[in-house]
Amino acid sequence: MSTARAERLVNLVLCLLSTRQYLTAERIRSIVPGYADAPSDDAFFRMFERDKAELRDLGIPLETGRNSVFDPVEGYRIARRDYELGEIDLEPDEAAAVALAVRLWESPELTGAAHGALLKLRAAGVDVDQTAPAAVEPKVRTPEPAFGPLLAAVQRGRVVTFDYRRPSPAELRTRTVEPWGVVSWQGRWYLVGHDRDRRGTRCFRLSRIVGEVRAASQDGAVQRPRDVDLLEIVTRTGDEPPPPARARLWVADGRAQGLRRRARVVSRQAMAGEPGDVVEIELRYPDSAASWIAGFGPDVLVLEPDVLAKMVRERLLGAVTAAERLGRPAPADGPADDRGGEAP
Amino acid sequence: MSRPTDRLPRLLALVPYLLARPGIPIEEAAADFGVSPAQLRKDLELLWMCGLPGYGPGDLIDLSFEGDTVTVTFDAGMRRPLRLTAAEATALLVALRALADTPGVTDTAAVQRALAKVEAAVGQAQPAGVVVGLSVRDSEATARVREAARDALAHGRALHIRYYTASRDEITDRTVDPMRLLLVEGRSYLEAWCRSAEGVRLFRLDRVDDVRVLDEPAAPPPGAEPTDVSEGLFRPAPGQRTAQLVLAPDVRWVAEYYPVEEATELPGGRLRIRMRYADSSWMVRLLLGLGGEVVVEEPAELAEQVHAQAVEALRRADHLAAR
After folding, report:
1. Which residues form the WCX domain (chain A) (predicted)?
2. Of A236, A259, A293, at which residue does a domain stop?
3. B99 shares contact with chain A (CB less than 8 Å)
4. Nearest Cβ partner of B167 from A88, A180, A340?
């Protein structure tokens, strides 16, 4: 923004704040410095329209009206009570909470808005120290491309449609949803709303939305039910974990540390000449447990139960088949290269 | 940090800000607004030219400078900041509510008080449409680790930890200088200077198997910078390789769970992804677990390693069955 325009806009705000009367555009043109530079009526009106849009974008409540019924055109003013932030005074521990809240967002949509809020609180006389450390720093990211459009749709009350992929059973279909809110839970973002096709309340993972989110109504078409608890809707969909089942495994000496730290050694045993331990471990989810165990390759064998041994075997056979479908690879030579960094 | 379009909001906030702080050093004000002192002086010069209709000496905003400090002597009616926009109120109130509802992060009583005051000032009690649940379901063991880390941070002590590094499937004993606790993407981390790695590391609390607060003081070196988590926790680094994989529909979760650089939809609900990895032993473990639901297109040596490990594992399992 040019210095001349910034100066003109500040003067415009001060002028409209100081008047109780509505001022017509012509009157503003004659009073506020800067508008006199406009070479023609057209140029002035273009300038004035742009300035009004800028003020409204900033959230400045520009009122329009007539001082009397005989006025031929509408005028403008800013009502001070609508413009000004209310009184606020924070104790040091409250200001520290605000500082932590502002730092929470790691999000293109929300970081800037939070800083805008902080700026205004400071201007209201609140001292907020952003450098003071906190015991725990929570951080929330919004990496999904659907976040911005969905947030806008929620705030404007617009129905949305999008393509949504469900993993199992695998399907990709278009959903039409009345969005009530976006919810972050355990590091994931969800959309909660009324699914028009399924006629019920549904949660959608933002990471499973494919392509664009499209608006399917005018603003204000969605009415969120009163007293709806969005977080509760997301969290209640999680099933109770199944009870743990005990498995006995063989683990090669010095290997599979990730498994060993959750297991209990019960005896020593060699397997095809390879020294190792027999361990017992509690497992809850057979599918993910089988994948986890298969990941350790020859370093871990399932002794019991059989069903787990079969599931691991299936994965290993699958890995062999998948590799051979690409063309039988030559055997790997030498141990795995280990120059990787430390992924958290 | 400051974009050109930020100037008008800053100009409108400056007069009330200065009114509340007579005689504030210009440098301090500039830091609060996130601009250079030179930029702040330009802003003040501009405001000095603004005022009320009439625009005579008594109508213009008046500032008095003394040394490197500034005081507003006439505000031209700009006494309070502009109210918060809906987006600003949402960003702040949603974050405060998340903190208020999460025990163990900060003093929730102070957050509640701050929340009530901000809501009253903003005049918006119902920020629509965004909720953040921060709470994590930690095991008892993890809760103990967190307490020890908090204790070490509060008293400025070093920590001894036994840590499981998942990327290398390795357990190591380390002495670390704690810097802060982080809660990111539903998990808790200790950020600390690791004396053995000689660098800042993030330690996932649920992978700390043993913890002891030491008598010696924590002393992260002056150059130890906090980790920038804005782009996620796993960031591109030299030495990483990239795998190209085709995921069957049943294992598309891989692309949601791990950061993926490129994802291309294929017929039948399959997904081709490119994914960076720091350690090939970790990648081999992931791929073996995915079994036949994934095809390793690149690099060839990764496919070979997976194949060799699977063949060897089957051979050993057959040996067990034959006994």
Report:
1. 244-318
2. A236
3. yes
4. A340
Cβ pair A155:B86 closer than 8 A: yes
A133 touching B (Cβ < 8 Å): yes
Residue A15 in contact with partner chain B when CB distance is under 8 A:
yes
**What pTM, to 2 d.p., does this model score?**
0.83
CB within 8 Å of chain B, chain A residues 271-300: 271-272, 274, 290-298
Please report the ipTM that was assigned to this predicted complex.
0.84
Q: Nearest-CA neighbor of B220 among B201, B193, B198?
A: B193
Question: CB-CB: which of B13, B51, B291 is closest to A315?
Answer: B291
Structural domains in chain B, sorted by start: 4-74 (1.10.10), 86-122 (no CATH), 140-217 (2.30.30), 241-321 (3.30.70)
B58 interface with A at CB cutoff 8 Å: no
Q: What is the pLDDT of residue A329?
A: 46
Domain contains A332: no
pLDDT over 90 for what percent of chain A?
70
Report the C-alpha gap between B210 and B26 in whole angstroms: 49
**CA atoms of B89 and B275, how far apart (whole Å):** 38
**Pair (A152, A223) in one structural domain:** yes
Q: Is B275 exposed, middle or buried (0-12, 13-18, 19+ CB in 10 A)?
A: buried
Token representation of residue A341: 């960094």
A167 contacts on B by Cβ (under 8 Å): 249-250, 252-253
CATH code at A67?
1.10.10
Q: Is residue A60 part of a domain?
A: yes
User: Residue A207 is nearest to which of B78, B256, B304, comparing CB atoms?
Assistant: B256
pLDDT tens sequence across B274-298: 999 988 999 999 999 999 999 999 9
Confidence of residue B134 (pLDDT cuts 50, 70, 90): confident
What percent of chain B clears pLDDT 70, i.e. is strictly above it? Answer: 97
Tens-place pLDDT, residues B158-185: 999 999 999 899 999 999 999 999 998 8
Question: Does residue A21 belong to the interface with chain B, where contact is any CB pair within 8 Å?
Answer: no
Residues A128 and A70 in one domain: no
**Largest distance between two CA atoms of chain B:** 103
Q: Are residues A154 and A174 in the same domain?
A: yes
The domain boundary residue, chosen from A236, A263, A292: A236
Q: Does residue A65 sit at the B interface (CB-CB below 8 Å)?
A: no
Q: Of A102-111, A188-197, B103-112, where does mean pLDDT reach its minimum?
A: B103-112
Which CATH number fits the domain that encloses residue A181? 2.30.30
pLDDT given at position B225: 85
Residue A303 sits at the chain B interface (C-beta within 8 Å): yes
Q: Is pLDDT of B2 > 60?
A: no
Count of domains forming chain A: 4
pLDDT at A333 over 60: no
How confident is the model over A154-158, as a mean pLDDT?
91
Residue A334 in domain:
no
Asked if residue A65 and residue A24 are part of one domain, the reply reads yes
Which residues 6+ apart lie within 8 Å of A306 measured at CB? none
pLDDT value at A338 more than 50: no
The reply to whether A199 falls in a domain is yes
How far is B237 from B132, CA to CA, in rounded Å?
A: 30
Nearest to B110 among A97, A172, A296 (CB): A97
